[in-house]
Amino acid sequence: MTQKSVRILKAALFLLCLLPLGKLTLEVFGVAGMSLGANPIEELIHRFGKWGLNFLLITLAVTPVRHLIGLAWLMRFRRMLGLFAFFYLLMHFLTYAGLDQRFDIPVIVEDVVERPYITIGMTALLLLLPLALTSTNSMMRRLGRRWQKLHRMVYVIAILGVCHFYWQVKQDILEPLIYALILALLLCYRLVVRWRRNRAASRQITRNGHDRIAHTRRTI
Amino acid sequence: MKTKNKIHPWEITSESVYLDRRQFLLAAGLATAAGMTSLALPGQLMAATGDLESVQGPYSTDEPPNSWKDITTYNNFYEFGTAKDDPYDNAQEFRSQPWTVKVSGECDKPGEYHFEDIIGPHTLEDRVYRHRCVEAWSMVVPWVGIPLGDLLKRFDPNSDAKFVRFKTLHDPEQMPGQRRPVLRWPYVEGLTIAEAMHPLTLMVVGVYGKTLPNQNGAPLRLITPWKYGFKGIKSIVEIEFTSRQPHTSWEIANSREYGFYANVNPEVDHPRWSQARERRIGAGVFDEKQPTLMFNGYAEEVAELYAGLDLRKNY
Ligand code: HEM
Q: Which residues of B touch A42 (CB under 8 A)?
């Protein structure tokens, strides 16, 4: 994959990731008879939330997919996907805070404190913030290994996101369960890989001594 | 086609629907001109999609009603799916005629009654009511129906009839939502006998002067405007007079969140969200939510039903 084709693909992916926003915009302004239905604010909150969660899971799927089909260059797109997750979730929050609650701070604070599903959502979004802020190249360099540690937080965020979804559903939990299943598969994949490497490493230890495991740990 | 010599509330307030109606009349006229005869039902009911003959009933609000489109495409009717547009999408083929209702329990005239026998002897009334969903949205709906109490009295309930229990049709063939155990099917709702006999309580057969669309609970549904919308059980096939309080579907699903009474109450929150305010469907994206009123604004009519009852415990 040449530098140039990566750049073209990145531009294409960027536009692709903007499609949900484009469609929502047309619907908000009622272009070509499109509409958000009878309850547009609720619909906006839901659609932004759903796309945010979709992008979180897509981001988490990049590494396994790369392993399984061996396309190393997929990794070059992961950051953009993660940032789009953040963008859609920020819009999710802003729709809730701005359109639904009209930036009525006491009401929002009360919701965050008293409604467990919103507490969880808020926690997830706040945890996502430092990841978005440290996604620049210079930050990656500056933080070094701590960067990777910090960005593992995305697993916790995804779990909180799915719990938030599950908890806000009135009665029909099928859809959040499907999300939970996908997330569980993605997490299991990570755990299996890690467990295998650890096992391989401990075999190495018995042969080569301790320095080896330290190296393996670092590269997981 | 019977003509009406009075002005309905929505004809003053909702021009788009008035136009709809003219188009409908025009279409009906063409159909007649083409030699088609209308499917006359016994009693006052016209053809399946037709206009109903009704008189203006009491208690109507003068707030502007929601559009036909909002009322008939944004529905909670889990028998046809849990998304708001599922009922519209999945209920079009539903057969709401012929229809029978089984009446049983503590009354002297139990039996199987045809839809026509149930509605026929009564005068249909227009009633424009506020409708408040437990999910904190609301509409204003011009229902057509009969006072439930007038209907129930015809079955001669006895002195042991303390509650009325209603059941929705259970037919997973026709109601795809019933193929998944989202709620315990069939849907069951209930009222105290005093609530059932209250003059605000309606057995509804229409909306906007027309036969109730399937997605709104055809052919027969309950409306208790001071309670959350889920009390308004749809496509009713059973009415039972009982001496004990019925177990209702949402209570069974989650008794911490949904109670038997389900009276609209801005001071008692749903465990997961506030009930203090509501979003009026049809309002603009930048409009504020409006405060929810005690008993959905019908306190004057119904508060006395609950005198002495702790509404925090009996939610
Ligand atoms: C990582 C963070 C978050 C994720 C992944 C997320 C995801 C979701 C999803 C998937 C839904 C359901 C959409 C549907 O039913 O179609 C939802 C609903 C909702 N979320 Fe979030 N969300 C997050 C953060 C937040 C935050 C910070 C707030 C507000 C402070 C919030 C408030 C809401 C509200 C109010 C609803 C709608 C509840 C309802 O309609 O009853 N979320 N969210």
A: 137, 279
Pocket test for ligand 1, best of A36, A58, A155, A165 (most atoms within 8 A of CB): A165
- Whole-angstrom distance, CA of residue B135 vs CA of residue B274: 9
**Total structural domains within chain B:** 1
Q: How far apart are CA A36 and CA A43, in angstroms?
A: 6
**What's the one-letter identity of residue B94?**
F
DSSP annotation string for B251-279: HHH-TTT--SS-B--TTS-BTTB--SEEE
- Among A39, A41, A46, A183, name the best residue to mutate to test ligand 1's pocket (greatest count of ligand atoms within 8 A of Cβ): A46
Specify burial of residue A167 (Cβ count, 10 A radius: 0-12, 13-18, 19+): middle
**Residue A118 to residue B207: CA distance in whole angstroms:** 37
Tell me which amino acid residue B238 is.
Answer: E
Domain that holds residue A46: 36-216
Is residue B240 in a domain?
yes
| Minimal CA separation from A194 to chain B, in Å | 38
pTM above 0.90, yes or no: no
Q: Residue B248, class by beta-carbon neighbours within 10 Å (0-12 exposed, 13-18 middle, 19+ buried)? A: buried
Atom of ligand 1 nearest to the CA of A46: 13
> Residue B239 falls within a domain, yes or no?
yes
Residue B1 located in a structural domain: no
With respect to residue B292, please indicate whether it lies within any of the assigned structural domains: yes
What is chain A's pLDDT, residue by residue, as a tens digit (220 residues)? Answer: 788 999 999 999 999 999 999 999 999 998 988 999 999 999 999 999 999 999 999 999 999 999 888 888 899 999 999 999 999 999 999 999 999 999 999 999 999 999 999 999 999 999 999 999 999 999 999 999 999 999 999 999 999 999 999 999 988 999 999 999 999 999 999 999 989 999 988 887 776 655 554 444 444 4
The CATH number of whichever domain residue B299 belongs to comes to 3.90.420.10
Count how many domains chain A has.
Answer: 1
Does A170 touch chain B if contact means CB atoms closer than 8 Å? Answer: yes
Q: In whole angstroms, what is the distance from residue B157 CA to residue B137 CA?
A: 36
Q: How far apart are CA B8 and CA A83, in angstroms?
A: 54
Residues of B engaging A, defined by a Cβ cutoff of 8 Å: 69-70, 73-74, 78, 82, 84-85, 135, 137, 180, 182-183, 253-254, 272-274, 279, 281-282, 285-286, 288-289
Between CA A58 and CA A52 the distance in angstroms is 10
Write b or e for each residue in B290-314: b if 16 or more Cβ atoms lie within 10 A of its Cβ, otherwise e: eebbbbbbbeebbeeebeeeebeee
Contact residues, chain A, for B285 at CB < 8 Å: 28, 40-41, 99
Cβ <8 Å between B272 and A115? yes
Which residues constitute the domain of residue B217?
9-306
A11 within a domain of the structure (yes/no) = no
Q: Are B124 and B46 in contact (CB under 8 A)?
A: no
**Residue A205 CB contacts under 8 Å (≥ 6 apart), including other chains:** A212, A213
